[in-house]
Automatic annotation (TrEMBL):
<protein>
    <recommendedName>
        <fullName>asparagine synthase (glutamine-hydrolyzing)</fullName>
        <ecNumber>6.3.5.4</ecNumber>
    </recommendedName>
</protein>
<feature type="domain" description="Asparagine synthetase">
    <location>
        <begin position="96"/>
        <end position="398"/>
    </location>
</feature>
<dbReference type="GO" id="GO:0006529">
    <property type="term" value="P:asparagine biosynthetic process"/>
</dbReference>
<dbReference type="Pfam" id="PF00733">
    <property type="entry name" value="Asn_synthase"/>
</dbReference>
<dbReference type="InterPro" id="IPR014729">
    <property type="entry name" value="Rossmann-like_a/b/a_fold"/>
</dbReference>
<comment type="pathway">
    <text>Amino-acid biosynthesis; L-asparagine biosynthesis; L-asparagine from L-aspartate (L-Gln route): step 1/1.</text>
</comment>
<dbReference type="InterPro" id="IPR051786">
    <property type="entry name" value="ASN_synthetase/amidase"/>
</dbReference>
<keyword id="KW-0436">Ligase</keyword>
<dbReference type="GO" id="GO:0004066">
    <property type="term" value="F:asparagine synthase (glutamine-hydrolyzing) activity"/>
</dbReference>
<dbReference type="InterPro" id="IPR001962">
    <property type="entry name" value="Asn_synthase"/>
</dbReference>
């Protein structure tokens, strides 16, 4: 992967402290050694909107990602491709994906793969077996009591003769005294995505199995067009093209501003629309259909990848994100939009209920599914994407989120305005404040 892509997606990080010339790669260590004045409003707002501190911001006032990392969204180009034939695109994309896998596993003996049983991770397993018929391949699936997708992962593991491991997680892995949550927060220097804990448990077993690398399917949705609702959002927009990013953010935010203001002191709330505006002034795609893909790769993908990278790093693994290979990204980004999201009916703008249209008339990851037909059974390729089923609603009933929050950051312990998923985000943010609060030189107080 080119350095600029590694930087954009958070796999090569340098940070600096405002007022000092030197930079460093370990933000957590720097903050713990020197302390910090307060939490960053841009970081807190980023977490509540995007689930991680975006662009050059961190969770700490006075600490930034290095300036050289700004503007890297310009490395993303759309609409410049010469390839319009689907068969030709399939052959080239398949070759690039196989090549990306080979780059990651070239000098390894034991290959580990995080396997959900969905299209992306299953295709990696199938391609690895095609490339290495006699190599030891280990697969790892994590689920939850009463809700898992093990049957799909088992089907793939059996078909491709992997050594398969499953682990079922429960309440104690997230909230028990021995939970790894705070240790992962400390390493990351930011609150967690809920999937980081399950990923860390998979990496722990991979380390015990002496795997040399662990490959992940993260990034496939972002490159090949897996978020069909989001990708159809353009069809409901009737405003000025240059302001589409603000419309996207209204639909993307994980917390609304009204909810943020009801929970967080005003001093920790920033304008997230103004924060992201610069990256859309000159580099956004001309075709509005590609705009969401640009938004995703410039702002969403890094948060997704950093959760996986944090879990991998927890057990000493390098990144294994084969779908983020630079050659593959450049090629697929410049293919026609219809190769990613295929529509089976005419799109007549504006479409008020774009989500319903997407569910009825659209097929996501169209090109990737074409590639997968040579490797996987149709039951895996076409099954409905479920996402990772962390049972927050059940844990909410068990009073997991009835906590006393830090009053210097939060206005109230009352989380009744939040759903269970949002309550975990608040729990997670509060755990971050607890972990790093001891290094804060001032307590801040209410806004």
């Amino acid at each position: 992967m080119r350095l600029e892509h590694r930087r954009l997606f958070g796999l090569e990080n340098e940070f600096y402290k405002v007022g000092l010339e030197s930079s460093f790669s370990d933000l957590s260590r720097a903050v713990c050694e020197s302390g910090f004045d307060d939490f960053s409003p841009e970081g807190v707002t980023s977490f509540l909107s995007f689930r991680y501190p975006i662009l050059h911001h961190t969770m700490f006032a006075g600490f930034k990602r290095s300036d050289e990392y700004r503007g890297l969204e310009s490395t993303l180009s759309f609409g410049q491709g010469r390839y319009t034939n689907m068969q030709q695109a399939k052959v080239i994309a398949e070759f690039l994906l196989l090549q990306a896998i080979e780059k990651k596993v070239a000098n390894t003996r034991r290959i580990g793969i995080a396997l959900s049983g969905g299209l992306d991770s299953s295709l990696i397993v199938a391609m690895c077996r095609a490339l290495y018929p006699h190599r030891e391949i280990y697969t790892y699936s994590i689920g939850f009591y009463g809700d898992d997708e093990f049957k799909y992962a088992r089907k793939v593991a059996k078909k491709f003769a992997t050594k398969h491991y499953e682990k079922t997680l429960g309440y104690k892995e997230f909230f028990g005294d021995d939970s790894w949550l705070k240790a992962l927060i400390k390493q990351k220097a930011a609150p967690l995505h809920p999937n980081e804990l399950p990923l860390a448990y998979a990496q722990a077993q991979a380390r015990k199995d002496c795997c040399d690398v662990v490959l992940c399917g993260e990034g496939a949705d972002d490159v090949f067009g897996g978020y069909s609702h989001n990708l159809m959002l353009y069809a409901s927009y009737v405003g000025e093209p240059q302001k589409f990013y603000a419309y996207i953010l209204e639909h993307y935010r994980y917390f609304s501003y009204s909810t943020m203001r009801s929970l967080i002191h005003d001093k920790y709330i920033a304008d997230d629309t103004a924060m992201i505006a610069p990256i859309f002034r000159s580099n956004a795609p001309k075709d509005l259909r590609d705009y969401m893909l640009y938004f995703i790769q410039a702002l969403h993908t890094r948060g997704l990848i950093e959760r996986g990278a944090n879990a991998l790093r927890f057990y000493g693994f390098n990144d294994g994100f084969v779908f983020l290979d630079s050659s593959l990204i450049d090629f697929v980004n410049n293919l026609p939009f219809s190769y990613k999201l295929h529509t089976k009916a005419p799109v007549q703008i504006p479409i008020k209920d774009y989500k319903s249209f997407s569910d009825t008339h659209c097929e996501s990851k169209f090109l990737l599914k074409k590639i997968a037909k040579s490797y996987l059974p149709s039951s895996i390729i076409t099954r409905e994407k479920k996402g990772f089923p962390v049972p927050f609603a059940l844990w909410d009933k068990q009073k997991a989120f009835d906590i006393q929050v830090d009053s210097s950051v939060f206005k109230s312990d009352d989380l009744s305005c939040c759903n269970a998923w949002e309550k975990f985000m608040i729990y997670n943010l509060n755990a971050f404040v607890e972990v790093f609060g001891v290094y804060r030189r001032q307590t801040g107080g209410g806004g």
